[in-house]
Amino acid sequence: MVKYLVPKYLRFDKNQPFISLCAILAFLGISIGLMVLIIAMAIMNGFDKEFERKLFTMNYPITIYGHFKAGITDSELKDLKENFKDMKFSPYISSQAIARSGNGLEGSMVFGVNMDDEKEINSVVKDGIKDKNLTKFGSLVGKGLKDEFLLDIGDKITLIFTKIDPGGFSLMPKMKRFEVRSDFSSGLIAYDKSYIYVDINDLAKVLSYEDGKFDGIHVYSKDPFKDKERLNEYLPGTMKAIGWWEQNGNFFSALELEKRALFIVLMLIILVASLNIISSLLMTVMNRRQEIALLLSLGTSKKEIKKVFFYIGMVIGAGGIAFGLSLGLFGTWLLGSFDIVNLPADVYGSSKLPMELSFTDLIMIVVGAFVIVTLSSYYPAKKATQIDVLQTLRNE
C-alpha cells in the first residue's frame, strides 16, 4: 500500500495545484540552501587554508627562542642539527627598526639570516632572493615596502635601529644604510611592508653581537605539533620552542568562530525551506482526509498511514538534498577551476578564489540537512494518524 500511495500523492494535483507548488518550492529551497551552504563553507575553508599556508611559511613551523640575555650559541645550534637530523635549522638575529627612504618612514622587523640556511626553510625568501646574496650590507625587502618607497634594485635604504649608543651629551640610535638587492612577495601585506632580511654577519656587526651568538632559530618540520614537544623536552631551560599556530592563535580562533556562525546562519535557509515540507504535507493530509479515514476503517494501521506521509516528506527532502549536493559540488569545482570571480591580489595574495571543501564540513552539512528534513516530515505524518474516522466519514 505504501508503494502505491506515495507516488500517487506525489503526482501533480490539478484540483489542488497549490499543494504541489509548495512541494516544489520545498524541493528547490532545500536544494538552493544546501548548494549555498556547500559553496560558502568551501570558500571559508579555502581562505582559512590559504592564510594558514602563508602564515606557516612566514612564521616558520617552529621557532626556538633563547633567553634575552644568554641567547643561543653556535655550539647549541650544531648540537641541535646533530640530534634532530629530520629537521632543518636557520639561525637568526632580529631587531625592530625604522626604515627610511627620502622623507618616508615605516616600522620594520629586520632579520639577520644565513641565506643558504634560510632558503632551505622559507620558500618566499628563496623565490625572492634567487641567485643573489646579501653580504656586504645588502637587503631583501618586501614588495609592499619597495612599492611604498618607490625603490629600485640598487637603491639605498636607511635602517634606524632601536639600540642606542652614547654620543657626546646625548644618546644616538644606531643607523646603517643597506642596498636593496631584491624583493619578496608573501601575499600578506603585513609582512610585505614590514619584513626586511639582511646577512646575519652584517647585522651582528651593526648591533655589536658576539661572534656565534643568535637571538633564535627558525625550524622547518614536517610534523611541527609533535616535533615541538620533542624539542622542548630536549632544550635547556634558557631555550623554548614555539609553534606557528601559537603565534597566531587569536587569528585562527576568529576564523573558526566566523565559519561556525556562517554554518548556523546558512543552515537556517534549509530550516526555512523545510517549513514548506510541513505545510505541503499538512495540506495533503487535509485534502485526503476522506481517503485516510476510509483506509483506517478498512483495517489499515496507523503505522502504515504514518509511513506513507513520512516517506512523502523524505522523498521531497532527500531529493532536494541530493540535487543541492550535486549543485554545490559542481559550483565548488567551477569556481575553483576557472577565474569566474576575480579578487584583488594585493589584498588576498591571489586573484583566484580559493576553494577547498573539507570532508568533515560536507558530512556535517548533509547530516544536518537530513535531520531537519526528518523532523519536518515526522510531524505531518503523525498528524495524519490523528484523524477522527467516524466524524470524518459521517460529515465528509
Description:
Its main location: membrane. It is found in: Cell membrane. The chain crosses the membrane at residues 21-44, 261-287, 308-335, 362-381. With 396 residues, this protein is an alpha+beta fold. The chain has 2 domains: 2-55 and 251-395, no CATH class; 62-220, no CATH class. The chain has helices at 2-10, 17-59, 74-83, 115-121, 123-129, 143-148, 189-192, 200-207, 224-234, 244-247, 249-287, 289-297, 302-337, 345-348, 359-384, 389-395; strands at residues 62-66, 72-73, 88-101, 104-113, 138-142, 156-167, 170-184, 195-199, 213-214, 216-220, 239-243. The strands form 2 sheets. Strands 3-4-8-5-7-6 form a 6-stranded mixed barrel, surrounded by 4 helices. The longest helix is centred in the N-terminal third of the chain and has 43 residues, at 17-59. The two termini are 23 Å apart.
